[in-house]
Amino acid sequence: MIRHHLPVYAAVLIALGGCATVTPVSGNYPPITPRQAQGGAENGKLVRWGGTLIQTAPESNETCFTVMSLPLRQDGRPRLGEEKSELGRFIACAPGFYDPVLYSASREITFVGIVTGVKTEKVGAYDYPYPLLSASTVYLWPLAKPQPAQSTVFVNGGWGPWGWWGGPGWGWGYPY
Fold first, then answer.
1. Coiled-coil stretches, from where to where (predicted)?
2. Which helix H or strand E contains 10, and what residues bound it?
3. pTM score, two decimals?
4. Any idea what the CATH number is for the domain that residue 43 is in?
5. Which residue of 71, 76, 87, 90 is most buried, as measured by CB atoms within 10 A?
6. How many domains does the chain divide into?
């Protein structure tokens, strides 16, 4: 009898597996951080970097993003709360126009691309060496929806825990 249900169970598992969402930045990439790429030795390597946006700067034929790098989860989403990990900053440039209103500061973003060099820019008075990334994939993570507060309300109509029909032994006397 159970063998007859095996194809049904297999079909349900396959159907549920098809519902899983795969982001365009998922996959296995070398564990190179922007801090490691500041020396220029990682040029030409394909990497997946992400973090929180600092600035979005559209130019004539591309848009460049300045990002505070964060460690990434397995699916590629930045791990918020790990800002002290010191993975560094980087600049990722992608062809086309990306609206700075949508790609605003503090949004989570992930890139897949090739390390192309290092560019020194000022952070305050400090000359910071930004690794450059030529991004082939740009993924802006959706904002997390706030979860409403959960509350449990027990309504019993004033009849106690047993409802209108009474408790155990009601109508037959108690078994003393």
1. none
2. helix 2-17
3. 0.71
4. 2.40.50.140
5. 90
6. 1
